[in-house]
Design brief:
The protein is of the alpha/beta class and about 200 residues long. The protein has two domains: about 100 residues, D-Maltodextrin-Binding Protein, domain 2 (3-Layer(aba) Sandwich); about 80 residues, D-Maltodextrin-Binding Protein, domain 2 (3-Layer(aba) Sandwich). The strands form two sheets. The protein has a four-stranded mixed beta sheet, with helices on both faces. The longest helix has 15 residues.
Amino acid sequence: MKKIMVVIFLILCILLVSETAFAKGKSEGDFKAVMGSSSLGGTWYSVACKIGAVAEQYEGLNITVQATGGGAENIRLMAQNEAQLGLAEPSIASYAYNATSIFQGDPHKDIRFITDLYPNALCAMVMKSGDIKTFEDLKTPAGGKKKGFCFGSPGSGDELVWIEALSGFGITKDMLDWRPLSHSERVTAFKDRQLECLGYATA
């Protein structure tokens, strides 16, 4: 069943990529497309690389994976034809299509949905020995030091998702030491105790 789904996915990729890219690939005897993923070390980067590896098993089909800032950047890259495929959170894709939120006044009506990958849960990580036990503990007491929090790459879909999630607890960006870092950078910062909390949006 999994192999069938992969083949269907790849066929849809071919059908939904721009006509210009398709015509160019056809004339060269090889279909080529760039897929936007996430920063190096991110879950999406690994997933996209696997899709690219499967594509290479089919003659005349080549998908090059590009490390990016995530969903929001992937949509912008596709709009500029710097990528023909991209991974994005459903909410980010909806904002782009309807020109709302971070895409206010900038509609992307040409994007199309191909398939779901997996449920994307939000996970917060803190030190066991730290004083953060609940989201409420992220709030800075009067005169206190702001807690270091990292959600991922700057301008990524993860950033917006976490802003929306934390707002449910009455927490805004200015209440935290908000750190936009790549996946590998934030892990190092967390290990070095420069951050009190990491925010992930992953399976």
